[in-house]
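hi! just following up on the protien thing from before. the input was this:
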Amino acid sequence: MPKRDDIKKVLVIGSGPIIIGQAAEFDYAGTQACRDLREEGIEVVLINSNPATIMTDGDMADHVYIEPLTVPVVKQLIEKEKPDALLPTMGGQNALNIAMALADEGFLEKHHVKTIGTDTDTIKMAEDRLEFKNLMERIGEPVAKSVVVNYVEDAIAFAKEIGYPVVVRPAYTLGGTGGGIAHNEQELHEICSNGLRLSRVTECLIEQSIAGWKEVEYEVMRDGAGNCITVCNMENMDPVGVHTGDSIVVAPSQTLSDKDYQMLRSSALNIITALNIKGGCNVQFALNPDSFEYCVIEVNPRVSRSSALASKATGYPIAKLATKIALGYNLDEIVNAVTGKTYASYEPTLDYIVCKIPKWPFDKFYDASRKLGTQMKATGEVMAICNNFEGAFMKALRSLEQDSYYLYNEEIAQLSADDLRKDLRKIDDKRAFRIAEALRKGVSIREIHAITKIDVWFIDKIKHLVEIEDRLKNEELTPDLLKLAKHCEFPDRVIASLTGKTADEVYYLRKGLKITAAFKTVDTCAAEFDAETPYFYSVYGGEHEIQPDRSKKKVIVFGSGPIRIGQGIEFDYCCVHSVWTLKEAGYETIIVNNNPETVSTDFDIADRLYFEPLTAEDVQSIIELEQPDGAIVQFGGQTAIKLSQDLMKMGVPNPWYLCRQC
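and the predicted 3d structure came back as:
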């Protein structure tokens, strides 16, 4: 299908400020959308209230308005600019809510403004809890026993009928805001009252709790002709009951049978078709671990934090392709920019494992409740790629920059086995550390599973890491043991502390044994086709899939890692502009970062992208391969600046950094 000829000017609505549950993923999506619209010759009008975003740059859109994201302001803008269409699916929940408010009062129709991508009828079916529940029942997709309420009294009456606990899910909110799990009438009254207050339509779904089931997500795409593909499926390590934004997530799923996978995939495609989605969509499922029973939890008819993760995990640019679909293109007409050979209708294939760990603000707010539930608390996240789960998990763990380089916590280590059994019931950010310590103290995998409901596969992988620790402590450091430890991404500093050596001794020992990192390519197709876009991750064992060009001057720009309190999107803005300026000056550019939400980790920003932890050891492997002419750290916040001294020790010539005293 050719590009629509009725759309010449598009209004893109941003997401506003960075808040809990809404980080850089919408700047990433909005930036991709604006760039793609302009490439297609569309005049772009952008409104956003966050000046730290790349999407509010003057060269991202033809007209940029830094204004409050309110219905009256957007109305004035539409009257002034007279756009043909509105793209509301790149700005998170805020943009969707504004679009729905304008549609509901007839303003868009009056001013002849179309919603492109996913239309307002579809948004209403997906976001309105009653509409969605009714649709799922019509198409035969199972949902948990539930009722939609507009009053607290109705919620309490339903809970008395089915029993506690119940889950409260407000309509039209972001990141589970206003929701939660109520275990008694008092909690239900409190949570439901707040949820109704925060919901745009004063509506909450009260749902029978299925906490303890597996939670699985499918990121799916559909075009206007009805072609559907699965971009990626992701499995939460935590069972249902923890918001996916607060859960450790692995892609692709690791514990599903082929029957499980195909059953949920078919359901996701059935749902996206019934909703008439045009673009990207995230479908969340609960799967009974003891049967093939499943429930549909919810659908996001827009890009989300999970969409950003799926994009970076696969190399498949969801927001970019969703924009092209909004303009009328079909999946089989859009060339995959990563391979340059396949089309967007070709489902991505992963020959590696991706692990995401959330970044929580508890290091800043130490006395705050660390309890995790259906309302997101994470400010951001990190992503790591490896050829085994243990390695991906260890890389993600150190990417959090919390001085945790393996699964050991001194405070938790003081607990007895019986105390750990009790504490394993706590659902918070320290849960993985408690599991590791319980395994050290002899608590069985089956017992931990019975308490936590975490799949035994994940617990067994943690046990493998604990067993390697034990071997490093008690055995001679043989070449085979060192290879195993590095294969599972134990840093030199941890191996040194466990073996009584120094980090330098471990480094030179493995270098002598040629145990070094090799860099592999993210190509969306498991190496079936050569990738045009250089996007890399490291593994121990294997050969490089990159041969850097030594004839060009090159500079590495170090990113800022996860979004956290005090270090937000502004550093990503600076890093991206640094890369663009270096390119204009004729330098080959390299970015190193581990945040899947950012524009800097988009596949086409720098000449090469390394998705790696920002630690001295991980960076050194890149330096040894690339041999850059310089490095820029002052745009990556404190995370990058801390690398300055290490870069000089590595022999990076004339590294540019914020101050000589660092």
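The domain at 358-515 is CATH 1.10.1030.10 (Carbamoyl Phosphate Synthetase; Chain A, domain 4).
DSSP finds 24 helices and 22 strands in the chain.
cheers
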